[in-house]
Amino acid sequence: MNTFSPPAPPSYTEATPRERTARLLTDTCAPANLVVVVLLLVGWHSTNGFAGLGWGLFAALFCGVVPMGIVLFGVKRGGLTDKHIRVRKQRVVPMTASLASVVTGIVLLRVLHAPKDIAALVVAMLVGLVSALAVTVWWQISIHNAVGGGTAMILILAFGPIAVPALLVAAAIGWSRLVLKAHTLAQVLAGTALGGVSALVFTLTR
């Protein structure tokens, strides 16, 4: 059983410039934020217009907004240490609840005949979440990098070479998690690899 225990991140006032940059990256590129962004971008691209953007917003409600609400509720109730849930054992319940939200989203998107790319992307997110949950039961994989790596690769698949700079964002997220000692290098790399699995599912189901 994994015994890795990440420390609480330093406050912005007490952090060094390097740590402040890392915290800013970690907070800005939180998994829920990236999920919303990639759904909006892929949604827009799926129809080249506002209709696709609307589908992206609809999917983001179940895949990003509701899961983040679950986490923030847990923090408010005192059951979770922070919005990034740095304690591994605390992740299982909110991840399972988020899983139910994503499944609901998939059902509704299918019933309402959402664009194929949006439906495929949400299925990929479901596979990534299930895989991350399975690993989290015994090991603290980096969810930040699972979503960051998956987001970068999915954007490249959807938009082509113009989206390659997204890989730099994924690398920066990994750097931030290492600086804050939230994960080991192995956990960051494993998270990125898991993101690749999600990208593969997106490719196979779109």
UniProtKB/TrEMBL annotation:
What are the record keywords, sorted? Membrane, Transmembrane, Transmembrane helix
- Keyword field contains Transcription: no
Q: Which InterPro entries match?
A: PAP2/HPO, PAP2/HPO_sf
Which Pfam families does the UniProt record give? PAP2 (PF01569)
- Which residue windows are transmembrane per the record? 24-44, 50-72, 92-112, 118-139, 151-173, 185-204
Q: Which residues form the Phosphatidic acid phosphatase type 2/haloperoxidase domain?
A: 142-204
Q: Has keyword Membrane?
A: yes
Entry's Gene3D superfamilies? Phosphatidic acid phosphatase type 2/haloperoxidase (1.20.144.10)
Q: In which domain of life is the source organism classified?
A: Bacteria
Specify the protein name: Phosphatase PAP2 family protein
Instruction: Specify the species.
Output: Streptacidiphilus alkalitolerans
